[in-house]
């Protein structure tokens, strides 16, 4: 029995040593998993600012202002909730100038994507409206249209040159078409 006891004691110690190394390896793997598991979208980029830093960054020019001009969407001054005129149907179509060198040879590097578009066409259906009844105001990112029967305040999907557009009213279709040239400040970089 003594031999069995020594043998079993040695077996227990060997088993204990084997298990302790497996536990240490398991703990190391768990540490690696938890370290990588803690990474998420919140860890990308600079750490978030502290409250004191944010309050210092948001110091306003006038203490009674509740928002800055940058926070107010362009065209919000035209929103009138008491005005019950309906919004007319409209459609926005992006356009690009394509020549034969683009179509057949692909020399300019243009593709059919919206990134290569230079103009925006806004078609507005205005039933029972005359061209003289239309009041149109265009800002860099906002189109405001008013008639006796309709009102449209449209936030444009892309900044435009508000002085370089054109508008045509087609009486037979009762439709106003407004063509606006888009501002493309990165074209010199993107179109190379």
From TrEMBL:
One Gene Ontology cellular component annotation held by this UniProt entry: cytoplasm
Domain of life, source organism: Eukaryota
Any one biological process term the GO annotation gives: flagellated sperm motility
Alphabetized Pfam families for the sequence: PIH1_CS (PF18201)
GO MF: dynein intermediate chain binding; protein-folding chaperone binding
InterPro entries: DNAAF6 (IPR026697), PIH1D1/2/3_CS-like (IPR041442)
Region (Disordered): 20-60
Domain annotation PIH1D1/2/3 CS-like: ranges: 87-181
Similarity remark: Belongs to the PIH1 family.
Descriptive protein name: Protein PIH1D3
The organism of origin for this protein: Scomber scombrus
Organism classification: Eukaryota, Metazoa, Chordata, Craniata, Vertebrata
């Amino acid at each position: 029995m003594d031999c069995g006891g020594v043998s079993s004691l040695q077996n227990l110690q060997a088993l204990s040593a084997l298990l302790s190394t497996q536990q240490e390896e398991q703990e190391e793997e768990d540490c690696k998993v938890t370290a990588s598991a803690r990474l998420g979208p919140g860890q990308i980029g600079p750490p978030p600012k502290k409250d004191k830093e944010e309050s210092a960054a948001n110091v306003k020019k006038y203490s009674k202002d509740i928002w800055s001009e940058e926070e107010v969407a362009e065209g919000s001054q035209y929103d009138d909730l008491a005005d019950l005129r309906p919004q007319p149907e409209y459609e926005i179509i992006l356009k690009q100038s394509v020549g034969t060198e683009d179509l057949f040879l692909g020399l300019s590097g243009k593709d059919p994507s919206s990134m290569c578009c230079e103009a925006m066409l806004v078609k507005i259906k205005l039933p029972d409206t005359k061209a003289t009844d239309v009041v149109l105001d265009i800002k860099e990112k906002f189109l405001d249209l008013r008639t006796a029967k309709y009102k449209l305040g449209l936030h444009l999907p892309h900044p435009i040159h508000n002085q370089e557009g054109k508008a045509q009213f087609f009486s037979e279709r009762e439709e106003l078409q407004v063509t606006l040239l888009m501002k493309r400040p990165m074209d010199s970089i993107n179109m190379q």
